[in-house]
Write a structure and sequence with these properties.
Layout lengths: L1 E3 L2 E6 L3 E16 L2 E16 L15 E10 L8 E10 L2 E2 L7 E2 L2 E12 L2 E8 L22 E7 L18
Antiparallel strand pairs: 1-2, 3-4, 4-5, 5-6, 6-9, 7-8, 9-10, 10-11
Amino acid sequence: MTADPTNPNFSIQVGEQESQGIEFDITGEILPGWNVIASYAHTDARITRDNTFAVGNFLPTVPLNGGSFWTTYRIGEGALEGWGAGAGVFAVGERSGDLANSYTVAGYTRVDAALYYRRGWLNAALNFKNLLGAEYMRAPRAGRASPRAPRRRRAWRAGEAPGTTGPPQPDQRQDH
């Protein structure tokens, strides 16, 4: 954003950005009830034209490389039918902190897990984020990067979501 030349009280968008790369996800069922999903992204996101920042600078908050591996197991029969557990690894590479590329935010690897119950209309989950307490920085906003909470737990319930039948999936967001 830059000042509007016709009205200094407003800002206008200038410049151009380009993002190129490759992304893939592989999912599968190894055995009945045991599912895996693996993903990888290589994203080259840069400024291609701008009045303020150098052409070729990386866009902030976009890692060049990132990926995840998540696995779940759901019991399909017997007294524990519907109960399941999942665990996975989520990795984010180093990324620029601002459009000027004046600093970088270090990459990180986080381990997450979930316990859940799904049967009929009832879906409930308890998610555990960052089990090993990895220290990492949130994606920067307004030129600031803030530390991320070392561990988080979140309970989730969806009683009126009949279309929600699969196991919990890893959080694909990059903690923006």
